[in-house]
Design goal:
Number of domains: 2
Protein name: ABC transporter substrate-binding protein
Organism: Polaromonas eurypsychrophila
Largest sheet: 6 strands, mixed
CATH topology of the largest domain: D-Maltodextrin-Binding Protein, domain 2
Structural class: alpha/beta
Strand content: 15-25%
Number of helices: 13
Radius of gyration: 28 Å
Pfam family, one: TctC
Family: Belongs to the UPF0065 (bug) family.
CATH superfamily of the largest domain: Bordetella uptake gene, domain 1
CATH class of the largest domain: Alpha Beta
Distance between the termini: 93 Å
CATH architecture of the largest domain: 3-Layer(aba) Sandwich
Shape: globular
Order of helices and strands: HHEHEHEHHEEHEHEHEHEEHHEH
Keywords: Signal
């Protein structure tokens, strides 16, 4: 049926207000599927790998983070200790993880000096990780058995002991190892021989048993032994610190221009999803800077930091240059 020109014009005129109303009507909210363009994370338990034994300072930092992080994420956060090779075993497992739910709490050496020390390191610190946050820092404490002298007399005894003296660390390439090599030259060509251990608890046991004569360990490990009268504090590897206010600096024992810290960081594999990166970058610094967390870490001998990913990247870059100088100066290489 054909419409007359008049009828068609009338229909068009009546339809215009309806079309305008439809165009100006409020739009329906996007469906749940549209809003969720960025996938939720995490969807299951998150694993925190630690390359040192239970009771070690990296382990304590990881466990202090795990509980509040679990509450924030709404999923379990499980700490798994995989000790060995100065933390490089756990670091390598984290670098190669593909489940998007495996992270690692690592120490300085895993991200700075390891590449320069190990010709066959199974991961590349510069390429295989997603930096998340610098968690904690602390000076180290030079400790010795109680039968050793204090202050500058200790270093005189150490020089006289030559290579009959031993020192311990948590492994080849660790800050305790490289720091002691720097100290050996700074304090007057000490000859002490390096003995690596799986973790600081084992270093302390060796000190108490007389197998080694000195070690650089974090305050959280050193202070209980010092307060119990089992180990002697020779000095801090930095200026005086609120973490160990009763311990003098090594400068007081006539060791000048020596400054060194140990730290822990949270990293994920290089292919960690953007959803995970974004969530962790929001939650982890907030948790670490929380007053309760700060106090818990302080009681363990850690200074809480909680940086952005960029802050951790900057620390890695600057310390890699420092550690590279020590490694080159002392000609250190690990097979």
């Amino acid at each position: 049926m054909k419409l007359s020109k008049y009828t068609a014009l009338l229909i068009a005129t009546l339809a215009l207000p309806m079309l305008a109303a439809a165009q100006n009507a409020p739009k329906k909210p996007a469906s749940r599927e549209t809003v969720s363009a960025v996938p939720a994370w995490p969807t299951r338990a998150v694993k925190l790998l630690v390359g040192f034994p239970g009771g070690s300072t990296p382990d304590m930092a990881a466990r202090t983070l795990a509980e509040p992080l679990s509450r924030a994420l709404g999923q379990p956060v499980i700490v798994e200790n995989r000790p060995g090779a100065s933390g490089n075993i756990a670091a390598d497992l984290a670098a190669k993880a593909t489940d998007d739910h495996t992270l690692a709490v690592v120490i300085n050496g895993n991200l700075t000096s390891a590449k320069m020390l190990y010709a066959k390191l199974p991961y590349d610190p510069a390429k295989d990780f997603t930096p998340i946050s610098l968690l904690t820092t602390a000076p180290l404490v030079l400790v010795a058995p109680m039968n050793q002298p204090s202050g500058s007399d200790f270093f005189l005894a150490a020089r006289n002991g030559g290579d009959k003296w031993n020192y311990g660390s948590v492994g080849n390439g660790s800050v305790g190892h490289l720091g002691m090599e720097l100290l050996k030259s700074t304090a007057g060509n000490l000859g002490a021989v390096h003995v690596p251990y799986q973790g600081n608890p084992q270093v302390v046991t060796a000190l108490l048993g007389g197998q080694i004569q000195m070690a650089l360990v974090p305050p959280g490990i050193a202070l209980p032994q010092i307060k119990a009268g089992k180990l002697k504090a020779i000095g801090l590897t930095s200026g005086r610190s609120a973490l160990a206010s009763e311990i003098p600096s090594l400068a007081d024992a006539e060791v000048r221009n020596f400054n060194l810290e140990v730290w822990t960081a949270l990293v994920g594999p290089a292919k960690l999803s953007k959803a995970a990166q974004t969530r962790l970058a929001q939650e982890v610094p907030r948790i670490i800077r929380d007053s309760d967390t700060r106090q818990k870490l302080f009681n363990q001998g850690w200074q809480a930091v909680g940086t952005s990913p960029e802050g951790l990247t900057s620390r890695i870059r600057s310390e890699t240059a420092i550690m590279g100088g020590i490694i080159t100066m002392r000609g250190i290489k690990i097979e």
